[in-house]
Amino acid sequence: MSRSYSFALPLVLAVTMALGPLSIDAYLPAFPAMAEAMGVGIGEVARSLSIYIFGLAIGQLVGGPLSDRIGRPRVMYAGLAIFIAASLGITQVDDLNLLLMLRGLQAFGGGWIMVLVPALVRDQVRGRDAAKLFSMIGLIMVVAPGLAPSLGSALLAMGDWHAIFWFLALYALGVIPLQARVVLRHARPIDVTHHHDSLLTRYRFVLATRAALPFIALQAFAFSVMMLFITHASFIYQAHFGQSESAFSLMFGANILIMLLVNLTNRAVLNRFTSRQILITCLCAQFLGILMLALATWLEVSVWLFLPAMMLTIGAQGAVAPNNQACFMEYFERHGGTAASLLGASQFGIAGTLSALSTLLPETLGWVIASMFVCSLVCVIVIVGALRPRRVR
């Protein structure tokens, strides 16, 4: 049963979840300074980003089932402690190998933190209320990636690149009392009936819930569309279309703005339509946007005709993620942490892999759009094969 919740609950969950994008995007402006300090190339420093993405996936695979076994609070506090310790460690290093190791550890703890957010939502609300709560959390998740690089630049202006990781450590430290006061005191008690279920048993239960599996594919491949865009955004707008750095920032920000507007609209539309209906509509809109991008690329149109199609494609993600999470988590009254871990690990693991593989393709606009098209096509195939609207009896 759903229970009522105050604005503080989604706010604290969003602040907690924002650790992910902050840890990924805040230090991007520091790559040149980090490379110079360590005496390596920027590409070698960029490896720390790939390690972080895969570390998040592994951390979620472990943290979710562990929270089902020993309780959400223990795993949340342990994950925050690991994250803080690794962040403090990074503030003291100037060696690439040590940086990579500590970023992996930081991501592992971050995975424990992030995987608990959908599990905690599932513990407390269901149905439309869950979708609305995910949508409210998504507001900050949309804004955080857009603000993180600017935050990183501001911290660099006040000190060296270590200041960014001091900030991350202090941010995570501040999350602890917020979680304790607002969220974790309402955490569901451990289910003693299934307390001794092994990790394999918990994952077998989730994977045996066949009706939920399409949502794992949708989460991974819809998110991959956005990750492919983020990976190649600078090439698209600056190298291919010849836009300046300031123009690139505005065009990139336009996608964030549309995602924000779609997210806000999603909350209102949920009063009239189900999460499944909105999810299908937005995935179809995303596919339509990519078809428009393909046509624009083939016709070699100007950036001002290309941009609206990209805004439609990426903007749809503002409602895809919260509704997909709500639909998936609805199936798991028990083993919710394990379910959330599989969803999150699939999302970051598959999107990270496809994004990395896309860098091996020829760097042309056609190949970038083709990669996005394939990911969106997978979503459409899943919709047609598994998520067709059910007949009302």
Automatic annotation (TrEMBL):
Membrane topology category: Multi-pass membrane protein
Predominant place of localization: membrane
UniProt-listed GO biological process terms: xenobiotic detoxification by transmembrane export across the plasma membrane
GO cellular component: plasma membrane
Localization in the cell: Cell inner membrane; Cell membrane
Keywords, sorted A to Z: Cell inner membrane, Cell membrane, Membrane, Transmembrane, Transmembrane helix, Transport
Recorded GO MF terms: xenobiotic transmembrane transporter activity
Domain Major facilitator superfamily (MFS) profile: 9-388
Iron keyword on record: no
The keyword Transmembrane appears for this protein: yes
Transmembrane region(s): 45-63, 75-93, 99-121, 133-157, 163-184, 205-235, 247-266, 278-298, 304-321, 342-361, 367-387
UniProt superkingdom: Bacteria
One family name in Pfam for this protein: MFS_1
Family statement: Belongs to the major facilitator superfamily. Bcr/CmlA family.
Protein name: Bcr/CflA family efflux transporter
Lineage: Bacteria, Pseudomonadati, Pseudomonadota, Gammaproteobacteria, Oceanospirillales
